[in-house]
Amino acid sequence: MIYLDYAATAPAPRAVADAMYEVLAGQYGNPSSQYPAGLEMKKRVEGWRRTVAAAMDCPPERLFFTSCGTEGDSWALRAAVWQNRHMGRHIVTTAVEHSAVMECCKQLEQEGCEVTRLAPDGEGNITAAQVLEAVRPDTAVVSVMLVNNELGTVFPIGEIARGLGAKNPKALLHTDAVQGFLTFSARNLGADFVSVSAHKIGGPKGVGALYIGPRVKNPRPLLPGGGQESGFRAGTEATAQIAGFARAAELRMETRQRDREHLQALKAHAVEALSSIPDLQIIGAGGAPHILPVSLVGWPSQNIVNDLGSQGICVSAGSACHQGKPSHVVAALKLPKRTASGVIRISFGPETTAEEIDACARALRRHHDTRMPML
After folding, report:
1. Alpha helices per DSSP H over the chain
2. Is 86 helix (H, G, I), strand (E, B) or coil?
3. CATH of 14-253, one of 3.40.50.300, 3.40.640.10, 1.10.10.10, 3.10.450.50
4. Catalytic residue set
């Protein structure tokens, strides 16, 4: 199998699986229990918290484990709206956010919030000036992702944070950093909420984290209950997943610079390898080194995904969360219909090789040469 869908999920190294098995099989105490096995597990959870916090460059006491990036996004938005409920219920976000943010904003609209959704330009860019222009005195929260999961566009979160402080100091800033994990410092980014997910960096599915900055006062829990996570996120801690998360973060931190250089070289190689395919068009101008959206203009994307999948090559037609539905991200670019309908996403990881990229390019060329366009 040639796996080129790292933006959907990343394979877990054996060391991550071993860390999880050790907890599942031999260290299964409940961190809330008061006998020695429980107290020991509580101590280990705090150690893993410090590890993940170090990877995000934030104080461990401001990092809270969640079940996934989606939970972190929803918690951040709802906590921000609650904190600023007396100031206003206006939300500023973008038209290209992950579905986790898009759908939560739709719910909040139904509950009385007003949402402004900013459209990108044809390359997928959204500027800080564009975001700040939409901010009003009654804006409770601004939510802009760090790296777009379909286009690889990197949004100017630091610039937005600085401008927001001048225009509306009480408005809170959230960023979904799931696709940008290990590329930022939470201390320096300026966002009040930063959500991440373990499985994008080779950790297990079912665990993530939310950084909550010091401007957030007593964040309202999304899940009230037994008082875990300092009383802010109830539910028995998923200790094995947290252990795997921490181990994955350790491994990626050790190779972070080398991985980035490798991904940048892979992306450049992919652009060159794909450029000779007739009717193939690079989509957007995304700066993330691990995401490359392209369109085989005139050939439906799902047909391409199915054809390559039958040959053991895994790419996607957009976010895995769309499950075959048209992408709102691609739609926001307002591309010609034949171009938009042919968009696929190729995404890489540290284990990806140039030979795998070449095999994908050959398969796309065969698809172009042997299948009739349908659009």
Report:
1. 14-26, 36-56, 69-83, 99-110, 128-134, 157-167, 186-189, 239-254, 256-274, 301-310, 328-332, 337-340, 354-370
2. coil
3. 3.40.640.10
4. 321
Measured between alpha carbons, how far is 295 from 305 in angstroms, rounded to an integer?
12
pLDDT digits (tens, 9 = 90+) for 261-270: 999 999 999 9
> Closest Cα partner for 246 from 56, 110, 108, 102?
56
List every span in the chain annotated with CATH 3.40.640.10. 14-253
The Cα-based distances of 80 to 84, 132, 176, 193 in angstroms read 6, 17, 14, 9
**Residue 319 in this model has a pLDDT that exceeds 70:** no
Residue closest to 181 by CA, chosen among 253, 281, 287? 253
Q: What is the pLDDT of residues 172-224, one digit of tens each?
A: 999 999 999 999 999 999 999 999 999 999 999 999 999 999 999 999 999 89
pLDDT number for residue 321: 52
Measure Cα distances from 144 to 79, 90, 152, 268, 369 in Å: 16, 14, 14, 27, 40
Q: Tell me if 179 sits within 8 A of 149, measured CB to CB.
A: yes
**Exposed/middle/buried for residue 9 (C-beta within 10 Å: 0-12, 13-18, 19+):** middle
For every residue of 99-168, DSSP letters joined together read HHHHHHHHHHHHTT-EEEEEPP-TTS---HHHHHHH--TTEEEEE--SB-TTT-PBP-HHHHHHHHHHH-
For the 2-10+256-370 domain, the top CATH level (class) is: alpha beta
| 210 phi/psi in degrees, rounded to 5 | -130, 120
Sign of CA dihedral 42, 44, 49, 54: positive
**Strand duo 90-94 + 313-314: pairing:** unpaired
Residue written as tokens 């959230």? 174
Q: Provide CB contacts within 8 A for 194, sequence distance 6+.
A: 56, 58, 146, 174, 175, 177, 184, 186, 210, 211
Q: In the chain, which residues fall in CATH 3.90.1150.10?
A: 2-10+256-370
179's CB contacts (< 8 A; 6+ apart) are 7, 145, 146, 147, 148, 149, 152, 200, 288, 291
